[in-house]
From TrEMBL:
Keywords: ATP-binding, Isomerase, Lyase, Metal-binding, Multifunctional enzyme, NAD, NADP, Nucleotide-binding, Potassium. PROSITE patterns: YJEF_C_2, YJEF_C_3, YJEF_N. Homotetramer. Binds 1 potassium ion per subunit. It comes from Pedobacter rhodius. The keyword Nucleotide-binding applies. Residues 228-495 form the YjeF C-terminal domain. Its EC number is 4.2.1.136, 5.1.99.6. This is Bifunctional NAD(P)H-hydrate repair enzyme. HAMAP family: NADHX_dehydratase (MF_01965), NADHX_epimerase (MF_01966).
Length: 496
């Protein structure tokens, strides 16, 4: 897991690295600039392009100057350097890089106020005005300059963080910072890059290592952790010699209705393909033929007037919700399951019924897993105006109720009872299609059936679900939920 840090913690890491490694502050800046340029050159290899580099007077601007220097040395002739002179202060390393530039033949333009800028002709912009030192919203000249740059509608590469974008905390809905095409950030992604609102500031980000002390970073106190493939490889348990279906547990999927039988099929299919020893689908009578013909391996349990799961203890995992439909009978079924006090996976309509019965929320069995998307989450726990606040609520609820909350999105946040938030990096917009969440629910149930702890099951399921989607999307514009389900055993095999 990568520990993710706030700007203040990054600054401390910076200081610690300089104090404890044989590297001076200016050399760290040089390393950052080199790492930026390496990544930039992979995208922009045409050295005849016009590049405008805007540099503030802090360390972000210092990076910008070093980047300009390196690009010029790489044969990029058409570089214009703009020094944003809106403050009397300058950082030491900015000053050193500025002096180096002053002593060279390279020219620069000083901008004393936003209105100084007129008729800039450029193909590409590098934004090094303000970085992680941002400590208030952009106003006056900074706001005007950024507005001007955004209006040029050019490809903007941001250094470390787009100017005006808060690295953590609430992202204002009226965000007025730089709108970058790509942000190349140092050592760790900013926490806020994982929120949907970050699309206002950057289309994508790439993290480049600059030699900061990894031990120091990993040992910082943080709630945020980015899941890595190596974690998944460590967590997965191989199937054992002499094992049999009983070894891998029995999962019960309570799902489907007359018009939504597909949801039950998708969840059951992914449960089967994730390796549960036995999968039983509790479905409406009307779905029996569909189940028996499409998934002959799955046991059918008709749900007519079904109000109670007989002997729930015989299942190692119970998931309820996909395509279930809302009814008094289903609500009773959910209530009874909650009173049975066995951990549950609760998705879709089961979440919607739960939001109508707040009395049941407090009674959720410990280690249950809730898988809401944004709207389901807000129905359960109240409206939120932004993702930062929503995530804070999810974190608190997961701790209070001792459950796992998977707040689904492009980057899903997995909030666990210990107060940690795991961020899943896999998945892509080709997966934005109905049924994808049903598949996720089946995968979670299968991992629980195989006796993975709730937190591990949630992390594994989310990562592998997204990874399957990523690999399938390499040559497809859209990936269907059943394709993802069928890809799961292939992904698990690759990861083992
Ligand atoms: N740690 C790392 O990994 C490494 C970091 N490096 C680089 O350093 C960057 C951080 O640099 P930094 O700390 O000097 O701050 P930076 O963003 O340049 O701002 C300068 C000053 O602007 C001011 N200011 C803030 N907000 C404002 C506003 N809205 N409107 C007006 N003014 C505002 C504020 O000054 P103040 O208001 O406090 O006087 C602030 O101090 C980081 O992003 C990365 O690029 C690498 O070089 C090496 C490794
Ligand atoms: N753009 C995307 N990038 C990554 N994952 C996505 C994207 N869109 C959807 N997904 C994933 O697909 C699933 C959708 O869940 P959900 O909205 O409950 O779907 P459904 O109810 O149709 O089954 C989630 O796991 C989500 O993370």
């Amino acid at each position: 897991m990568q520990t993710l840090l706030t700007s203040a913690q990054m600054r401390r890491t910076d200081e610690f690295t300089i104090a404890n490694k044989p590297i001076a502050s200016i050399d760290l800046m040089e390393k950052a600039a080199r790492a930026f340029v390496q990544s930039f050159l992979r995208d922009e290899f045409d050295s005849t392009k016009n590049i405008a580099i805007f540099c503030g007077k802090g360390n972000n601007g210092g990076d910008g100057l070093a980047i300009a220097y390196l690009l010029l040395h790489n044969g990029y002739e058409n570089i214009k350097i703009y020094i944003v002179n809106f403050s009397d202060k300058q950082s030491d390393d900015f000053a050193i890089n500025r002096q180096r530039l002053d002593e060279s033949r390279y020219r620069k333009t000083i901008i004393n106020k936003a209105a100084d800028l007129k008729n800039i002709k450029t193909d590409i912009i590098i934004d090094a005005i303000l970085g992680s030192g941002l400590n208030k919203p952009l106003t006056s000249d900074y706001a005007d300059l950024v507005k001007y740059i955004n209006k040029l509608n050019k490809k903007v590469y941001a250094v470390d963080v787009p100017t005006g974008f808060p690295a953590e905390g609430e992202i204002p809905s009226d965000y007025n910072g730089i709108k970058a095409y790509k942000t190349i950030c140092f050592q760790r992604p900013k926490i806020n890059f994982f929120f949907p609102e970050s699309a206002l500031a950057t289309e994508k980000h790439e993290v480049v290592a600059i030699g900061l002390d990894e031990n120091f970073i990993q040992n910082q106190d943080s709630d945020f952790f980015l899941i890595e493939e190596s974690d998944i490889r460590h967590m997965l348990k191989p199937r054992k010699l002499f094992s049999h279906k009983g070894t891998y547990g029995h999962a019960l999927i309570i799902a489907g209705n007359t018009n939504t039988m597909g949801a039950a099929l998708l969840s059951s299919m992914s449960c089967l393909y994730t390796g549960a020893g036995l999968t039983t689908a509790c479905i409406p009578q009307s779905g029996l033929i569909a189940l028996n013909t499409t998934l002959p391996e799955v046991i059918a349990l008709p749900r007519d007037e079904y109000r109670k799961v007989d002997n729930p203890a015989k299942y190692q995992a119970i998931a309820i919700g996909p395509g279930l439909g809302l009814s008094a009978a289903h609500e009773k079924l959910l209530e009874n399951l909650i009173f049975d006090n066995q951990p549950l996976v609760i998705d879709a309509d089961a979440l919607n019924m739960l939001s109508e019965r707040p009395d049941l929320i407090d009674k959720l069995p410990e280690n249950s897993i809730l898988t809401p998307h944004m709207k389901e989450f807000d129905r359960l726990f109240g409206e939120h105006q932004n993702w930062w606040d929503r995530l804070q609520t999810a974190k608190v609820k997961a701790q209070q109720l001792k459950i796992v909350i998977m707040l689904k999105n492009q980057f899903t946040f997995i909030c666990v009872p210990k107060g940690r938030i795991y961020i899943n990096p896999t998945g892509n917009p080709a997966m934005a299609q109905g049924g994808m969440g049903d598949v996720l629910t089946g995968i979670i149930a299968a991992f629980l059936a195989q006796k993975y702890a709730s937190t591990d099951a949630a992390i594994l399921a989310c990562y592998i679900h997204g990874k399957a989607g990523d690999n399938l999307a390499m040559d497809k514009i859209v990936v269907s939920a059943s394709q993802v389900a069928k890809q799961i055993p292939v992904e698990i095999k690759h990861l083992m």
